[in-house]
Amino acid sequence: MATILRMTIIGVFFLFLVIGQDVYGGSSSTTMRARQILEEVDDLWRSQSSHSILSMRVKTRHYTRTVTMENWTKGKEKSLVRILSPRKEKDTATLKSGNNVYTYLPKTDRTIRLTSSMMMGSWMGSHFTNDDLVKESRLSEDYDPEIVFEGERDGRSIIEFGLIPKPDAPVVWGKIVFTITAQDHLPIVSQYFDEDMVLARTFTFSDIKEMGGRKVPALMHVVPTDKPEEFTEMVYQSIQFDLEIADSFFSLHQLRRR
Amino acid sequence: MRLGKMAWRNLLRHKRRTSITSFSVAFGVLLTVTFTGSGDYSYTNMIDTSVTMGLGHLTIEPPGYNDSPTLAKTIGDADDIRKRVLDIPGITDAQVRIMGQAMFASGAKSVGGMFLGVHPGNETEEHNIFLRSITKGKMFAETGGREIVIGEKMAERLGLRLGKKLVYTVTDKNGEMVSQVSRVSGLFRTGEDMVDSTIVLLPIDRLRKTLHYAEQDASMVAVFIEDQRRADGRRLEIIQTIGTGQHEVLTWNETQAELAGLIAVDRASNYLLQFLIGLLIAAGIFNTLLMSVMERTREFGIMMAMGMAPSQVVKLVIIESFWIGVMGLVLGIVITAPWYIFMSKTGINLESLIGDDYSVGGVLFDPVLKIRLFKESVIAILTGVFGLTLLSGLYPAFRAGRIPPCESIKQD
Amino acid sequence: MNLVSFAFRNVARQRHRAWITISAMAFAGFIMIFYASLMEGIIDATERNAISMELGQFQIHVPGYRTDPDLYTLIYQDIALLQTIEGAGFIGTPRLYAFGLAAAGKASAGVRLRGVDLERESLVTEAYGHIMTGKWLDERDPFGVVIGRKLAKTLNVGVGDEVVVVSQAADGSMANDLYAVRGILKSIGEGIDANGFFLNASSFRDLMALEAGVHEIVVRWQGRETPLEQLTQNLGDLVPDLEVKNWRQLRPVVARIVDTSRYSLIIMLMITYTAIGILALNAMLMSVYERIREFGIMKALGIAPWRVFSLILLETVMQVSIASLLALAGGVPLSYYCESHPIDLSKLASASLTFAGIAIDPVWYSRVTFESVFTPVAVLFGMALFAVLYPAGKAAVIRPVQAIYHR
Lengths: 258, 412, 407
Fold this sequence. Notes:
Shape of chain A: globular
Strand content of chain A: 35-45%
Largest sheet of chain A: 13 strands, antiparallel
Order of helices and strands of chain A: HHEEEEEEHHEEEEEEEH
Shape of chain B: elongated
Number of strands of chain B: 12
Strand content of chain B: 15-25%
Oligomer: heterotrimer
Order of helices and strands of chain B: HHEHEEHEEHEEHEHEHEHHHHEHEHH
Low-confidence stretches of chain A: 1-27
Radius of gyration of chain B: 31 Å
Strand order of the largest sheet of chain B: 2-3-8-5-7-6
Structural class of chain A: alpha+beta
Distance between the termini of chain B: 31 Å
Low-confidence stretches of chain B: 356-363
Number of domains of chain B: 2
Largest sheet of chain B: 6 strands, mixed, barrel
Number of strands of chain A: 13
Mean pLDDT of chain B: 83
Largest interface: B-C, 57 and 60 residues
Helix content of chain B: 40-55%
Mean pLDDT of chain A: 77
């Protein structure tokens, strides 16, 4: 599940890492350019590994909660997240290694593997589903990017991408609209539309800070369209890039270590 | 011969009594036909419906699949097996299928369910209940395409319409989670919510790719036969044809044990009720035969006084009940035939009795009380009722043989 | 001479003949009383099994809960509400529901967690008695759970095995706990078999961090038989802001199946009644026709036709009365015996059974009702009297000479 964190940390474009290499991609000139920019963005954010401390604030009609966690990532396929607070959930940990996702439950001292029946469940009470986490690393393979707007908007110079799922991509969305600043290629907003082109949720990125030697948006805010009073917010407290983390760190054994 | 003639004369002399008794026998035939017939009809109906929900009358499947069905278990040469099995006479159809569990998601929601990977070109409405229950759209045509057919209830829960996108996630042969996109080409409704909200038909070749199956891999070959009662015999023939290396052949009795149990219980209860009714009929026949013996006490007394052996008197009464039995059966067939024709063709629609407050329609549940008889049941009924008649005549015959000649003449 | 004592003497005089007729009719009545009681029991069981396992007679929800069973759609006035409906002759039990994942070893399955109030649940439904192996929930065992049959198979667990449950608690945290399987249910219905996971209400609240409120109240009527619509209306008036549905509205398909099986059993019962009717008819026809000579002689002795007619009717009534008494003496105790000592067919079925969502008990209890006892007797009387009307009339008007040669 930790991939979602990476998604927030490094911006959604991190996920377009492979777009440039995509052999199925379209060949129109705007598609080419879109890929090029996203590749640049990706280069900018590319990192071998990362380690971060962040907090997640969730507000729903029924509860408000704040969870602090520590997160390690390596490459595209490996990540580990461990909860630091609240106390009740401390040491709950999630490991993603390739296609497999495991959760360690300290209360019962058991590790369970995420199965398809849990996919649509909420992750940690947030507005993300487990499915979001698993599908995230496939975004680049599943969508064709296109620049749909370039120029001034709300006093800022921006580039807007339209991401259309490939016909055979296993995604439920109809389109993702993704906006970055034209200058630094920093993410601003990302909107998910369903098949009938109705907006389902909006990601907003802000509070750009210098962390771990890079300029990153330290705050990500997610609002589901059908419940505008609710949100999930991710705030980065610290982040480091390109550390040495052994592959063995992302193991079931490590998952259970407190 | 003399006794036979005498028996006939007696029967003809007491026309009223004879007709009353044979009418009892005939009525017994009618009752048993109704009871046995409703069983024969409804069991066959239930079995033939149940087997079209995926598993067939016989299932050729990987060993151990029945106890714990998983997608990791496959038979490797399913299509070849299908072809060879289809050549066996008495086998009407065979279908290669993949069955398993998956998560189905739309933009709005996701639900867990079961899929049935099928070959659209080979499947027929007769042997696939979902195919014949399609209410909107149509069955997909390509085996490797992305179109699928889902139940109306599932579509409702996922907020889907025809042509809309649906993503399913399954655990493949190697235990990895894989997702696939598809589009709804048709909706079905069987009337059973549980089925309509969980079952999905997928094109088999696309499913094989998704699951990383080999070209001929499948969970099973579902085999359909003409007559569900011949399942055991056909199983032997299938085993002879394809051997028993990588697979086992199970009948519906084993794969659908719950249905088999249900039928066994229902059949037992039906037998019990028939037994009680048999007792009623026997009591009636017994009554008339014994009466006729009592009433002729004097007659028998005279016969024995004139030198007829008691054993011959016994024989006489038995012959009489034999002919009553025969006449009863003939009469029974005459009165039962129109009833049977009506009940097997039209039946009693219980729905009209209940009233149509809730129009829940559906194919799983048959609201018409109908009857149908197997040949064996016909023979069983005729011998049963006839045997009952003879049995009921035994005691009266015994009584007739024991009449003391002298006193009986004086009596009355 | 007194007609009654005359009739009585006639019956007594022809002991053999009378006894044959009486015993045939008594036997028929006996079988029929038992049969009808058994049928009542089956009809009753079908409806009871459909309702009492889980569904209940009525269910109360917050409007909209049934289409979207959200963890937060709660009835908060539950305690007051239970008291209110109890005051009106109903009894209710609260339930809590949540979706989660159960895992044991390498296997896992989606489950529907069902928190039940142990004290009340057993007053309203009978799932507690439908255990295949192990035991039902217990107050003193907060981590003991009872699960559905197919779920146990999917998770590959037996009684005593551990199951981990994961869900999202009401406060957004990850709900997880370790439970031990206490019991496995017999087949109750497709849903519960595959995903039913029962635990104590208090354990449910701990797991799901849900302090107050319930999702559903299942209600049973305790009073005299009253039309279902009427009761639904009454219950609805007691809880004006909530949705009250009876079992027929909740599960129309089940209601339809219950109705259909009831009607087909009634048709079978009617056919069987016809059988004893014909038996009584035959027996009486025989007994009057056999004696037509005797009646002719009575006529020849100058007895008035109406006296002959009433004599025959009286004799019939006497015989049927004796037969009925015998039938009652045999049939009623046997039927009562089978109320507590059922005919057990469960050996025939390897597992417990359900048909279209209705649990089927392969155990037959009879049920003695006024109808099951007196309808057979009434049919005996009716048919016997009907049977003798024509021959008695004929005997009354017959000319003596004709009667003596009558065959």
